[in-house]
Design brief:
Elements: H1 8-27, E1 30-42, E2 47-49, E3 56-64, H2 65-73, E4 79-83, E5 94-97, H3 99-105, E6 106-107, E7 113-118, E8 122-137, E9 140-144, E10 148-150, E11 154-156, E12 159-165, H4 166-170, E13 175-176, E14 180-185, E15 189-194, E16 203-206, E17 209-214, E18 216-228, E19 238-243, E20 246-254, H5 255-259, E21 267-269, E22 280-282, E23 285-287, E24 293-298, E25 302-308
Parallel strand pairs: 1-4, 8-13, 9-14
Antiparallel strand pairs: 1-3, 2-8, 3-7, 4-6, 5-8, 8-12, 10-18, 11-17, 12-16, 15-17, 18-20, 19-25, 20-24, 21-23, 22-25
């Protein structure tokens, strides 16, 4: 009777064990590799950074395969923080961070050694610290579902405090959020968004996030009747009157915005130039609350009657 050979399962298990053993032996050896390390610079007291600094440095490190693998997997386990107050400035407000300064500041996991760093030198300018409060603007792209309309975003808190050098914060009049994108929206968007960190190396914003409410409403029409048309003042030998004296205004917008509108919030004015010698038609100028649109008026045109004033002899 023929002997049965090893099963497929046994062969697979043997291969897996061989690969794991080979990997373990390989990772216990010493290697050199480049890893990215978070980099921060601390400005002297009452000073702020003017120069942008890299957020990470490329470090050539030596250590076991396990150590370097973990460092790549968890880069936050290493860091490099340079305090400028411990260095001597080249000029009154300019510092040159040398390779040796960086190498002394690098903190790596145990049994990992830093051999080199890139870049070798970093020039940093500082200036007087300042604080500026500016409004927040929301960067968003919201596409509503057909039949819905997007309202103006509401922000809480509406401002942020920017801290940095005088030169950096003086020219900033507002501060944006990270971009928000919503497609096929049919309900209010209520979320928390981080503010921009585009200048995080030279300036900080507080708070770092804001609450945003973007209303999404169904689109509707609203007719407001009996809106009074003002009559122009009459002077001289001619009398000017406008007909009709009341019109209907058709508004379009979100149902919630339309429901909150009161008739007294709608006003009609006449064009600045009216016929002064003959009669004619003019289009009324209608003012409505923000967030709604004046779609039409009934009638669309007003008749301006220009008549001579009769005088008694």
């Amino acid at each position: 009777m023929a002997r049965r050979g090893p099963s497929v399962t046994a062969i697979v298990m043997s291969l897996v064990m061989a690969v794991m053993l080979w990997g373990y032996v390989s990772l216990t050896r010493t290697y050199e590799d480049y890893v990215d390390v978070p980099f921060t610079v601390e400005a002297p007291p009452d000073q702020a950074l003017l120069s942008a600094v890299p957020q990470r440095l490329s470090i050539r490190a030596r250590g076991s395969g396990w150590r370097l693998f973990n460092l790549r997997l968890f880069p936050s386990s290493a860091r490099c923080t340079v305090a400028l107050e411990r260095l001597r400035p080249d000029g009154s407000l300019v510092y040159t961070v040398s390779k040796s300064d960086v190498m002394r500041a690098i903190q790596l996991p145990q049994a990992v050694q830093a051999l080199d760093v890139d870049p070798h030198t970093i020039t940093i300018a500082v200036g007087d610290r300042a604080t500026r409060i500016v409004p927040v603007t929301v960067r968003y792209r919201v596409e509503p579902r057909p039949g819905f309309v997007v309202g103006a975003p509401r922000i809480d808190p509406p401002t942020v405090s920017l801290r940095g050098s005088v030169r950096t914060v003086e020219g900033i009049s507002s501060w944006p959020t990270q971009r928000l994108v919503a497609l096929d929206a049919m309900a209010d968007i209520i979320t928390t968004i981080n503010v921009s960190d585009s200048l995080s190396s030279v300036m900080s914003a507080s708070p770092t996030s804001v609450n945003v409410h973007i209303p999404i409403q169904q689109y509707a029409d609203l007719a407001i009747s009996d809106v009074v048309v003002p009559q122009p003042a009459t002077s001289g030998a001619r009398m000017i009157s406008v007909e009709p004296s009341r019109i209907t205004v058709i508004l379009q917008g979100g149902v919630d915005d339309l429901a909150a509108i009161r008739p007294e919030q709608i006003s009609v004015t006449l064009p600045p130039t009216l016929p002064t010698a003959t009669s004619g038609y003019v289009r009324p100028v209608v003012t409505a609350p923000a967030g709604v649109r004046v779609a039409a008026t009934q009638p669309a045109m007003l008749y301006v009657a220009n008549r001579a004033v009769r005088t008694r002899n």
